[in-house]
């Protein structure tokens, strides 16, 4: 009996055809990174304080800057990051009846009075130190008591990821990788434009769920497809390369955000690539492995012959008995197949746990860049550069010493770096930044490794479903991460790092005990 692996070896396990397909499909990872962490820019919360109509009138009359008006009229308060200007209350007074003059915006008399005057809420909205730029936070005034709505923006994306990865994973195993991929990208295009044109925040959250429904599932289908088109020995390489383009997207994102200051137009830019991916219909074949798992031998053989032709190879083996070595009596995947044997149950539970912890820590560290108070564009770019070596370190280590040790080492580094960073004083800025970057590198390695390990451990007939189901824990982590980061940071800015470090070290114990 001739297996597909035998035929693929003759056709070229990783020839010109597969290189072309993998190169084209790697582009899918770039906009996925935009969507995954775009909240840092789309939902950026700038310095803000209560708008006072009287102060606004004085500012315009005196040609003061926003900062001049704030220094003269906004009281200071203690917060988790030290002494800052009050963001959620303003002085309850008539500024037109004070001695505030255009020539003396920082009058000693006024400053001495600020801490003793009565306060009131921001009944007239907020001023934002974000001139010329707009996030959905500034458009919908999602600050102070409504700040938690920002968490919902990212959480709703992960809800869409959660439902979509399971649904699209099932569709990809039942109806084919390419059909599901193309259908998903059409859906993403429509949902993405709806997000960009949402008339209010409730509509924005609804459309955000729909957007996430397609994005994650389409990305996972692409990952499975390219690993099925190459020989087993090349799966790790193409899988890591696919994820490396995600890190490339992380580098591109701050540049896009810098030159596109409006969050709605930024959303349009995030969506356009998915519409372009519909052209893959003419360039990418269906997975021969999937066709064999569905007993569509003739179609699988035609595609394999086309791959061989592009690779300038010829097939000489007997193709009459062609079969996929992983195909069993089950032709349609079902959820219970993931728990059918003790070995599969073990894989499913351990991989799910690792997806969860990796997602919480990875998303948390990236979103944290938006609340540190520095130059978010520069900080984000530096953190993206740190991610790039992760793929190369994985490729250098896993072929020589296996998966377990690099995976464990990456988690040790990430957890220790988070815990150490939390206790380095802000005065040691460069040391604090360097240790944080090392932690970012560690969690990136751990996250990338769990993805390709997931695809290696399941047979063809349930591979896409297995990856999709296990990665749902990643999405649950994504739902929790924004609340964990933003709400705990209000108490103490470094508190989320301690939680991230603890989670990562706990994951390490799971790896050593069970893998």
From TrEMBL:
Entry GO MF terms: monoamine transmembrane transporter activity; neurotransmitter transmembrane transporter activity; quaternary ammonium group transmembrane transporter activity
Domain annotation Major facilitator superfamily (MFS) profile: ranges: 110-515
Membrane spanning residue stretches: 21-44, 152-172, 181-199, 205-226, 238-259, 265-284, 347-371, 377-398, 405-424
GO biological process: dopamine transport; histamine transport; monoatomic ion transport; norepinephrine transport; serotonin transport
Keywords, ordered alphabetically: Cell membrane, Glycoprotein, Ion transport, Membrane, Mitochondrion, Nucleus, Transmembrane, Transmembrane helix, Transport
Subcellular location: Apical cell membrane; Basolateral cell membrane; Mitochondrion membrane; Nucleus outer membrane
Catalytically driven reaction(s): dopamine(out) = dopamine(in); agmatine(out) = agmatine(in); (R)-salsolinol(in) = (R)-salsolinol(out); serotonin(out) = serotonin(in)
One GO cellular component, as annotated: mitochondrial membrane
Tagged with keyword Transmembrane helix: yes
Bilayer topology annotation: Multi-pass membrane protein
Family: Belongs to the major facilitator (TC 2.A.1) superfamily. Organic cation transporter (TC 2.A.1.19) family.
Stated name of the protein: Solute carrier family 22 member 3
